[in-house]
Amino acid sequence: xxxxxxxxxxxxxxxxxxxxxxxxxxxxxxxxxxxxxxxxxxxxxxxxxxxxxxxxxxxxxxxxxxxxxxxxxxxxxxxxxxxxxxxxxxxxxxxxxxxxxxxxxxx
Length: 107
What we know:
With 107 residues, this protein is α+β, with helices and mostly antiparallel strands. The protein has one helix at residues 22-32, and strands spanning 10-16, 41-43, 53-59, 84-86, 95-98.
């Protein structure tokens, strides 16, 4: 198989959907471009598997430039559920306690 990715160099953005690890997204991209033997690929920072967002991905010589892209301004948007505590302290855990949040008047 011809490794098209061997001839590509740079940094690009890739969407990471919720439920996938950053590594699995990079691994899938790498395999589509020729596999580990033919393509050097990495990402500029791990996103939590429960988050979706943009991964900064370096390809071949672009891997060395990843750090320079990570010093800019970032924006995070989150959604929370008030009044519930889970066993794992995240959205996927079993609810172990519920409390009123009626005293919260502004978010």
